[in-house]
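Dear Dr. H.,

I hope your travels went smoothly. While you were away I took the liberty of generating a structure for the chain from your last submission, since the lab meeting agenda had it listed for discussion. I wanted you to have the full record in hand beforehand rather than looking at slides cold. The sequence, exactly as received, is reproduced here:
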Amino acid sequence: MANAAEHSGANGHAGVIGGTSRLGAARLLLWALAGVLAVRQAAVVLRVPPGEWLSDFHVPGSPGGLPAALYDTGQFNGTPFAGLVLKPLVGFAAPPLEVGWTCVTLLFVAAIGLVAARSLPDPVPRRTALLAAPVLVALMMVSLPVREASSPGQTAVLPVLLVLLAVFRVPGERPSGFLIGLAAALQPALLLFAPMLWLTGRRPTARAAAVTFAGATALSFAALPRDSWTYWVEHLAGTGLGGAPDSLSNQSVHGALLRLGLTGPGEILLYVALAAGVAWFALSRAARYARDGQLLLAVAITGCAAVAVSPTGWRHQLLWVLLAVAGKVGKRAADRPVWPVAVVLAMTLPSDVLLPNLAALAPVRDNVPLLAALAAACVVPFLKRSSPYWREPVPTAYGRPAAARWSRVPLLPFWRRVLSRPNLLLELLLIRVGYSLYSHIRAAAPTSRSVAEANGSQIHGIEQALGIDIERAVNHAVVKMPWLEGFFNFYYTSFHFVVPLTILAALYWRRPGDYRWARASLGLATVLALIGFWLYPLAPPRLMPDLGFIDTVHGVQDLANPQYGAMTAISNQYAAMPSLHFGWSLWCGVVIVTLAPKGWQKLLGALHPLITVCAIVATANHWVLDAVGGAVVVSAGFGLVYVLSGPRRLSVTLPGQRRGGAAGEAEPVPVPVPVPVLVRVAGRGR
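The corresponding predicted structure, in token form, is as follows:
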């Protein structure tokens, strides 16, 4: 027994060492990724020619000469104190200044990530403590605020670092207040940290911050009286300097109201009222979370509110939103990723990727960073540390795949199937972003007309050799029957998206376990199709000269014109192989036939891909072999899901099913059961 205990202890020690080494390797890889992203960002900035760099620096003047007034050109949008600090730099030569400014900015970003990661509220899991810093730095390097703050002359990163150092690293009340006052002198809205500190009991720090801000502002008035008057009086706190107040770059409440068409005294009164309400509510929340021990979250909330209530809150000042991922949201473990994922998407992707380009969505799409800041400051219900769910959220119920035909399946045992319904907001975000990326990649695929037409001739020749070149005969036969032509045109343009989304919605609501299986297979099939679009650009029959096809959907095309009309501007016309029109319809048919409980439903599911293949051929939008390609990628999608995660059916241990063992006790017997039963069984414990 002693030997067994020693052996067990040795195994446990080896497991700890193995876990530590894996964490160390992961941390090293993440830091390497952050370094690569930093080099990439530096390369983007340093690509600006040295002769143009000083003009982009936003501080008028030339090397060796006396700078003109800060705001004469209308480019500079910083405070007079920032101009006072930056003006001496104009005398340096452009190349070293360019390199130095870029490197210092990126070092500031890395410092912010390190300070923030070490300021997470206790208790911090060991894995989180080791990986938080490189993950946060990497996210900041690809975020919109850092990409814009890295441009010449922007000082938005420095105030964030000054505040974090003052709150978490600098000992003493007055030195901390001095740093916060300097940050407010560079970005006046950050003076909102003074009342936050006052409410949390750090009154000497708040007083020191206010005194430092007043002193820096007075110094800039004495040194730059004309510029100070322009900034504080003619342009209230810089409103309209460096960009129009109603531009998309101004992600503040004031900018949003202007973009909505509100102007004049009414808009100003509404802005003041909203700004006061946001500031009061955010400060109350920040003070509450600070007293709860979540000081980093309190700082992030105050920073988000400061940018939102400022007359001009530029996008490069919104780094505070990324820091708000320090808060925990949701009682279920499955809900915890929703807030971080939403923040990362809002802060890294263009708004047109997150939301469709529809006029009705313009007020939301144009203000995504502002809405993220307002949500962090006033809306998101972050958990308190006293909550029982802070450390132990409601666990996620997983199912085990049924026995596979091959012993090596599943290849990815960590790809576990969740039995409960996934978070709806997270699903909608991922589906929207996934489709946007698909659209962008599809549009960016090669569009060489000569290559596409050559491939079209190749496909046509193969079909002739196989005796399946039926496209022209079907196309012309349908054109002679207007009712059938109209039906196929309607089917082609209407059901491509509606049916898959309807199936996903039904599965999400009624069969969440099967929803994940179906979603994964559709996603993998689409990724494989994108590879086909890149490797084999193909002209569809309607865009093949001299073959006599009639484009029934888009109308007559001028094949002598390489643009083929307006459709080329919004879609890659040569992304035809494989046909996702047929592929997605085949996926719908397989899912319905597999899961539908009634015969008539299975029949409708089987008819959908059959009608779709007739439509794509009759309208001259695809070759027959394109449909074959669509069937191949969909089959591969289902096959990959099977190989990687196991069969669709799951195993669950039902109560009372035991075998063998003494005294009537033994190991449970796993029994494959339908997913709805699994959901009911899993739901009994909630």
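Two observations you may find useful: The chain has three domains: 21-379, 446-645, 650-683. The radius of gyration is 30 Å.

With kind regards,
E. W.
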